[in-house]
Amino acid sequence: MKVYRQAASVVLLLGALTSAARVVVDWNVGYVNLDRDGHSPRRAIGVNGALPIPPVFATRGDTLVINVHNSLDVTTSIHAHGLFQNGTSFMDGPAMVTQCGIPPGHSFTYEYEADHAGTFWLHGHDHHQNSDGLRAPLVVHERREPHRYDEEYLLSLEDWYPFEFAARLKDTLDPTKTFPPPASFPYALFNGHPTTPTLKFKPGKTYRFRILNMSTTEWFQFNLPGHQMRVIEADGEYSQPSAVDGLDMGPGERYSVLVTAHPTDSHNYHYNATLYAGFVPRIEDKNPRHYQGLIEYREGAPIMPTAEPANFKWVSDVELCSLSGNPPLPVDRQIELTVGGSLFTTGQTMDVINNITYAQPLIPSLYSAMSLDTPLAMNEAVYGPQTHAIILKHLEYIELLVNSPNSLPHPMHLHGHAFQIIEYGSLANKSEPVRRFSSEVNAPMQRDTIVIPVNSYVKIRFRADNPGVWLFHCHMDIHFGMGMALTFIEAPDVLRQRQKVPEAMLDLCRAHGIRTEGNGAGNTGLDLTGLPLPPVRVNRNGPLVPPVDF
């Protein structure tokens, strides 16, 4: 299988000596039939007739050019998960948020600056095509890396289900069927393959591991027994080095760690990766699934037996300290959000944020923000009742208090920003100590995806300094498909002055007969005729119905 390995000296040399380049990739997005996990042949979505999709490598300041041709029978779009798209919000990718999907048989070119270094990924953001294989790592190297190392490994982790996502979502939302559907148990993929790669170490060398959880639904744990990992990056944001024994990663999360090899090659070692979900039944060899790979110092060397440390330390992002040294942001406005599941009078159980289940408007929300006069564009109602629009004023400091009174965790991803991690706390047990950033260092860690633990809340902060329209959603694709999303409409008054949607993007809508101006229904003013009426919650005036695990 493919092992993605680069010498740091080459990366640093190229970054330091070359000017910004154009990194061009051609993606013909289409269906492929294959057996990815060795257990379940099925139809998937690949690029240029193959899976996995090769990683894309760039250096900060380069221009990324992704030429996409859609050979599917439905629309598609591509999102660069973790890039902020500052000044190019129309290139962010989510369908009917910042663009119309690319129609079948049509082509479109994404072009934007890779102005942020770190570990990211490209994935489909229409019809949840990420879940069916349309995903690939994106690494943007810094021109001068702040941490020293000799070589780096890229390791992408995926869960892979035996059926297409559309069928899974249909069963989940079908009111005539049992909810939740029977649990399913995916297999793990490593750099797109069902077997773990061999990691070759040289004595005394320091390696950077870029580890991505590109899963649809499940978590991964990763550790290298006999070796200490030092976390230096989370979601494209550098941290001060922090020693840990293992990584526990929800869907969408990424880490970089440094690992220094032992001084001799007398022994080889094993490393461990575990695919699991705490919200489905625990069944031997199904959940969790344990995988083991080889750290090879010397071919044929004996395996060193290792014991787990007495005080095994999993990474805790709130305990990391930002390398930037930036203190906690002030707060101009706190926005309180509650995520969960709710039963509706349709008989469906759907996911909600503040009792609203997300549904796409009839024109992209970005186009509404850019085409409406300022007083209207600043009115949340014009975007439609299920777009769940929240207006952010330019440059205000926002604190999100996100409550999850549920018996399952939620990995929440914010487009267009990284946020400071301020605090975790329990909703179920008020006597539990609150976990806050280090007051001694006073530099909260930043990232773009955060797991809200079971029956807990988080507080995160960011500044509204990136005019655009940005999704905030659960990165478990099934929860996103069930409606756990909202839309931040950030500084629409400033947005109109600074950005102009390329004509080729508007043509994508015209090819569908979709309007490119007006409110969420494509009409003028507050006339939302044409938008479906929002579904009605059972126990509408009471609390959320008890959440359900699946």
Name some characteristics of this structure.
disordered C terminus; seven-stranded mixed sheet; 550 residues; mainly beta
How is this fold's topology laid out?
Layout: E1 4-7, H1 8-17, E2 22-34, E3 42-47, E4 56-59, E5 63-70, E6 78-81, E7 107-113, E8 118-124, E9 135-141, E10 151-160, H2 165-173, E11 187-190, E12 199-200, E13 206-213, E14 219-223, E15 229-234, E16 237-244, E17 247-249, E18 254-260, E19 269-276, E20 289-296, E21 333-343, E22 349-353, H3 365-371, H4 374-377, E23 389-392, E24 397-404, E25 410-414, E26 419-426, E27 435-436, E28 446-447, E29 449-452, E30 456-463, E31 468-474, H5 477-481, E32 485-490, H6 492-498, H7 503-512
Parallel strand pairs: 2-5, 4-9, 10-13, 12-20, 21-24, 23-32
Antiparallel strand pairs: 1-10, 2-3, 5-7, 6-8, 8-9, 10-11, 13-18, 14-17, 14-19, 15-16, 15-18, 19-20, 21-22, 24-30, 25-29, 25-31, 26-27, 26-28, 26-30, 31-32
General description of the model:
By secondary structure, the chain is mostly beta strands. The protein contains seven helices and 32 strands. The protein is 9% helix and 36% strand. The strands form six sheets. Strands 1, 10, 11, 13, 15, 16 and 18 form a seven-stranded mixed sheet that branches. β2 and β3 form a beta hairpin. The chain is globular. The two termini are 33 Å apart. The C terminus is likely disordered.
Summarize the structure.
The protein is mainly beta. Helices cover 9% and strands 36% of the residues. The protein has helices at residues 8-17, 165-173, 365-371, 374-377, 477-481, 492-498, 503-512; strands spanning 4-7, 22-34, 42-47, 56-59, 63-70, 78-81, 107-113, 118-124, 135-141, 151-160, 187-190, 199-200, 206-213, 219-223, 229-234, 237-244, 247-249, 254-260, 269-276, 289-296, 333-343, 349-353, 389-392, 397-404, 410-414, 419-426, 435-436, 446-447, 449-452, 456-463, 468-474, 485-490.
